[in-house]
Amino acid sequence: MKILVGVKRVIDHAIRIRVKPDGTGVESANLRMSINPFDRHAVEAAVRLVEAGHADEIVIVSIGPKAATDVILVALAMGAHRGVLLETDAKVETLAVAKLLKHVVDEEKPDLILLGKQAVDDDSNHVGQMLAGLLGWPQATFASEIKIVDGGIEVTREVDFGRETLALPLPALVTADLRLNEPRNTGLPMVMKARAKPLAVKPVADLGIDIVPRLVVEKVTPPRERAPGKVVANVAEFAAAIAAEVAKMEPR
Amino acid sequence: MSVLVLADVDQGKLTPATARLVAAAAELGPVDVLVESAAADEAKALAGVAKVLSADLPRAADALALLLATLSEPYSHVIAAANSTGRDVIPRLAALLDLMPITDVTAILGPNRFERPVYAGNAVETVSSGQAKQLLTIRASAFAPAGAGNAAPIETVPTGNGGVAKVIAEQRAETERADLSTAQIVVSGGVPLGDKFGLIFDLADRLGAAVGATRAAVDAGFADNSLQVGQTGKIVAPDLYLGIGISGALQHIAGLNGAKAIFAVNKDPEAPLVKLADVALIGDLFVIVPALIAELDRLGVKR
Ligand SMILES: Cc1cc2nc3c(=O)[nH]c(=O)nc-3n(C[C@H](O)[C@H](O)[C@H](O)COP(=O)(O)OP(=O)(O)OC[C@H]3O[C@@H](n4cnc5c(N)ncnc54)[C@H](O)[C@@H]3O)c2cc1C
Ligand SMILES: Nc1ncnc2c1ncn2[C@@H]1O[C@H](COP(=O)(O)O)[C@@H](O)[C@H]1O
Questions:
Q1: A71, A248, B163, B208: which is deepest, by most CB within 10 A?
Q2: Which of A18, A138, A166 faces B168 most closely, judged by CB atoms?
C-alpha cells in the first residue's frame, strides 16, 4: 500500500499572533514556522502503518514557498520515503490546495491519503473533505484510530456525541485528530538521513491549475478586548460573584 | 434568494443548534430546512421556516454531500452547523460544486459578507465572496435561537444511495446534562483534577451547567473527548464560564471567545486564564470546589 500525506508549513502553534495595525493580516515576519501539528499525527500514522507491514511507501506533499521544504524534511525524518514540494509564494485557498493535491494523487495513485484535520493558521478544516470529494473517495475526518481490515479500513472519529467508527473501502482519505497517536521526535541522525531522501520541487505555475482566490479577505481585526478582571479573596466572595452572574441571566 | 439549512439532529431530536441556524439563516432569506424525518415535526414549528424537507439522511459525508449537491441547486445559501457533521460535509459539498465555502461564521454582515475567526480566535477575518452560491458553516452559539409556533409544510425528499462509507459503531458519552455548545453556564476542568474529575460534575450539577474539559484532561483519560473545549474541540458561548485548574492555553481560550463572564480557580495567580478572567480565586481547587458547592447551597443559588 502506498500512502500520501499532506503537510503544511504554519506559524508555530505556540506563538500568539498579532494582527497588523493596518488590518491586512497578521504579523508573520521572523516568527518560528513549523509543521502543522495535526500533520505530524498524520505522518506518524503513516509511518506506523509501514512499521506494521501494511504499507511500503509514504510520499509527502506540501504546497507553499521554498521554505516549506523544512516541513517536508520533518516528515522524511520521521520515516517517510520521499517528498514533493509544489512551490508557490501565493496564498492558496483550500479549494485550490485540494485541486493541487488531486494533481499529485492522479500521478502517484496512493491507496490511502492522510491529512491533518485542520491547519492551525486559517483553522479551515476543509482540504481533506474537499480532496475526497474531488476524487470521489470515501472520507473519515477527525480520526482517533485507524485499523486495517480485510477489504479496507476502519476509522474511529471524534464526533460531537462521542465517537463513531466508519468502515471504508480503499482508496480512502483520513484526516488526523490529535488523539490518533503520539508523534515521534526526530534526532539529528534522522534529520541527516532525511536530507538524502528524494525531494522533487515543481512550480505550481507549471501545472495549469486555477488557483485564483474566490474569496476576498477585506480586513483582519483583533478579537474584542475583555475588560480587566479582579481576584477575589475567598470562596464566599467567589460564590457571591457567581450568584450575581446567575441572577443577571435571562432565560434562553 | 432562499436558504437551505441542514438541521442538526441527534438521536431523532433537533439539537439546540438548529433553532440558532434557522434564526441566522432567516437574516438571509426564506429558510427551508432539510431534516432527518424523525425530527421533521419539531423543525416545522421553528419560526422563519418556509418548508421542511424531510428525508432519511445518510450518516456518512460522502452520501450526504451528494444528496446536498442535488438539493442545493435552487438555493442561494446552504448552511450547516460548525460541528462534527457540518464541518465534515460542507467542504466536501463545496468541492463537488467547485465553490469555496466560508466556515465557522460568527457574524453575517450581508448576503455574501461574513466574519470568521482564524489563528485560534486571535484574529477575526471579514470575508466576502463573489460566488453565485454561499456554502457556510455557522457557529450556532454566536446567534440567538428562532422562536416556535410555526407550522411549515413538510415535503418528503427521496434519498439516493451515493456513498460507500458505513457507520459500524458508535460510543456515546452520557448526555443527561445541558448541551455544551449552547449552554448558559459551563463548568470546565483541567488536567490537575485527575480521577477527581467528578468534582466538576458535582459543581456543574449544582449550577445546572454543562461540563467541559481541556485537551490535557481528555488526553489523560479523565474526561470524554466530547467535552473538550477549544480550537480543536467545542466552541462554547455561555453567560458564565467557570474554569477550574485550567492554565488557559491559547488553544483552550479559542473555544471561549463568545463567553460573557469568565471565572477561574487556579493555584497560580499568573495563569493566563486567571489574567483573562473577570473574577478569579487563587488556591487549591481540591479545597475550593467542595467549599464552593457548600457556599452555593447556603446562598440558595438557583436557575
Ligand atoms: C494543535 C493543538 C490543538 C489544541 N487544542 C486544544 C483544545 O481544543 N482545547 C484545549 O483545552 N487544549 C488544546 N490544546 C492543548 C493546550 O495547548 C494545553 O496543553 C491544554 O489546554 C492544557 O490543559 P490544562 O489547562 O488542563 O493543563 P495545564 O496547562 O497543565 O494547566 C493546569 C493548570 O492547573 C493549575 N493547577 C494545578 N494544580 C492545581 C490545584 N490543585 N488547584 C488549582 N489549580 C491547580 C496550574 O496552575 C495550571 O494553571 C491544543 C494543543 C495543540 C498543540
Ligand atoms: N499548503 C498545503 N500543503 C499541503 N497540505 C496542506 C496544505 N494546506 C492544507 N493541507 C492539508 O490539509 C489539512 C487541512 O487543512 P485546512 O483545510 O487548510 O485546515 C492540513 O492539516 C494538511 O494536511
A1: A71
A2: A166
